[in-house]
Amino acid sequence: QVQLVESGGGLVQAGGSLRLSCAASGSIFSINAMGWYRQAPGKQREWVAAITSGGSTNYVDSVKGRFTISRDNAKNTVYLQMNSLKPEDTAVYYCNADVVRATWLSSGNYWGQGTQVIVSS
């Protein structure tokens, strides 16, 4: 089985920064794309950023220039550096990963449990 565990959320004032981490563990052969999503109260979950195994990145327009996604393949960990935070960034942030499992080299898509980010004005 594979688990994703996020950390780094919290309460921050507008204009501040937070760094989220998501570590994958378990029966992992390799990880392809990894990404971050968020869900604000009363809204649907939305994609925020993604990074390939080779390091190519993409972002939703609303966070471009403020958020940076990165990964450490040796640690099976993805990060989201969030700068210049705005109240509208308040949400539960979830990490996501496309994992090739060590067992039979089968593939699966996994989610973390979420970490709360609150940005006060």
Radius of gyration: 14 Å
Helix content: under 10%
* Global geometry: elongated
Question: Helix count, per DSSP?
Answer: 0
Class by SSE composition: mainly beta
- SSE string: EEEEEEEEEEE
* Main β-sheet description: 7 strands, mixed
Strand content: over 45%
**pLDDT averaged residue by residue:** 97
Low-confidence stretches: none
Number of strands: 11
Terminal CA distance reads: 41 Å
Indicate the multimeric state: single chain
Question: What features would you describe in this structure?
Answer:
The structure is a single chain. By secondary structure, the protein is mostly beta strands. The chain is built from no helices and eleven strands. The chain has strands at 2-7, 10-13, 18-26, 28-39, 46-51, 57-59, 67-72, 77-82, 91-101, 107-111, 115-120. A hairpin with a 4-residue loop joins strand 7 (67-72) and strand 8. The chain starts with a strand and ends with a strand. The mean pLDDT is 97.
Gist of the model:
With 121 residues, the protein is mainly β. The chain contains no helices and eleven strands.
Strand-helix topology:
Layout: E1 2-7, E2 10-13, E3 18-26, E4 28-39, E5 46-51, E6 57-59, E7 67-72, E8 77-82, E9 91-101, E10 107-111, E11 115-120
Parallel strand pairs: 2-11
Antiparallel strand pairs: 1-3, 3-8, 4-5, 4-9, 5-6, 7-8, 9-10, 9-11
